[in-house]
Amino acid sequence: MEYKNTWELYKEEQLKEVDGFAQEYMSFLDNGKTERECIDEIVNQIEEEGYRELNAVIASGEKLAEGDRVYSVWMNKSIVMFQIGKNRMEDGINILGAHIDSPRLDIKQNPLYEEGGFAYLDTHYYGGVKKYQWVTIPLAIHGVVVKKDGTTIEVNVGEREEDPVFFVSDLLIHLAQEQLEKKANKVIEGEALDIIVGNKPLVLEKKKDDDKDEEQAAQKDAVKKGILEILQKSYDIEEEDFISAELEVVPAGKAREAGFDRSMILAYGQDDRVCAFTSLKAMLELDKVDRTACCILVDKEEIGSVGATGMQSRFFENAVAEVMNLTGEYSELNLRRCLSRSCMLSSDVSSAFDPAYASSFDKKNVAYVGGGMVFNKFTGSRGKSGSNDANAEYLGHIRAIFDKEKVNFQTAELGKVDLGGGGTIAYILALYGMNVIDCGVAVLNMHAPWEATSKIDVYETMRGYVAFLENADLN
């Protein structure tokens, strides 16, 4: 089977919609480079479309009815949205699930130090990264610092044109003979990914009666002291406040159109914010639905979906229980029935075929940029280890929906069988017994600081998610 290039299927008027949608998406990426920023952006959008906060509805004593829209945020890093359908939730709901965390560098809790006239912030990389890709590129710092009194200070430095940026240094080519003999995973060690944040020493006014020891003490770590003075004046942050900070180091700069034909988007964090955005927009496209529509966007997928904000937590299950209670359906048995009878698309990206590295892919079973929405029947690695493997009946049902709605899609695997692989949140939702399959957008340069997608694939995936939410029902 040969894939169809989606660009060739669109008419001129539709192509204008694609470009408009791409601009919205790039703005979403620019405004949401961390999980917290994504949540803020999403809440702003959905409240404008009539979504109400779940806890506020609970507190009011109201009940939910067909057409109502509610959402719940957990720890400012995960969110679940519901649009109530005509049918009973006990008979199952239709779910889109993506993640909003991306590979990056996290600043440690005791990070600031001086060495050789530079001030550094010590980092710990997050998720699967090629460490050598993170050196010598402009970096920005995003996140929050929470002081002992509970005050939260938001930090976003490096994105505006007038902002300074930060960087990880690399050894000059003239002295790199030994370095270049190392394996790629050792060329840059994890502990070497510390970012340079300053070089200018703090100059204190010298007093006439200062002795030599006092003068030397004043000069010690003078660059670090200069940085601390800036942090104090600009943000009211002291050194010990790093202990209760969540600061993420990400590539600086906005999402950009790529190619002379502007057909692609080059940006940080498209795995998996491209599927989060398309899932969000699909929810907002809905009018009336038979089965309740749900979208869950979670944290921590890149490190195993662990923790209170990851998919393995009970946040999603608890939210479904609360919604069922507000529709008058809740019981433990009804909750179990709802989850087991649900249909889900695990909205995550797939690797795109890269002609420069063609030997890593099975050309018959790989996603192509421009080929439309991608389905991965299974993920995992090598012998499908750690995989969710969707059953044939469910895949046949999905095919029928997409053929009916004229959604262009392709199927893929994540590279050649013995080369590696990857996983998503699909297997976690499958534990409830529901039907789940992975699908999303093909990404080039996946997990690199700058990833590439096709505008047409992003738009077609949104169309596919709408078709799924409106039509999926295996009961």
Summarize the structure.
The chain is α/β, with parallel strands linked by helices and 475 residues long.
Please tag this protein with its features.
475 residues; 22 strands; six-stranded antiparallel beta sheet; Aminopeptidase; nine-stranded mixed beta sheet
Written description of the protein model:
- The model has no long low-confidence stretch (mean pLDDT 94).
- This protein has 475 residues and is α/β, with parallel strands linked by helices.
- 29% of the residues lie in helices and 23% in strands.
- It is globular and about 85 Å long.
- It has helices spanning 12-31, 35-48, 54-60, 184-187, 212-219, 222-235, 270-285, 315-326, 332-340, 392-405, 426-430, 455-471, and strands at residues 52-53, 69-74, 78-83, 94-99, 104-115, 118-126, 139-146, 152-157, 195-198, 245-251, 256-258, 264-267, 293-298, 343-347, 350-351, 373-376, 380-381, 409-411, 421-422, 435-440, 442-443, 451-454.
- The strands form five sheets. A nine-stranded mixed beta sheet has the order 1-2-3-13-4-14-20-16-18, with helices on both faces.
- It is built from twelve helices and 22 strands.
- The protein folds into two domains: 6-102 and 268-471, Aminopeptidase, CATH 3.40.630; 104-251, Roll (Aminopeptidase i, Domain 2).
- It starts with 11 loop residues before the first helix and ends with a helix.
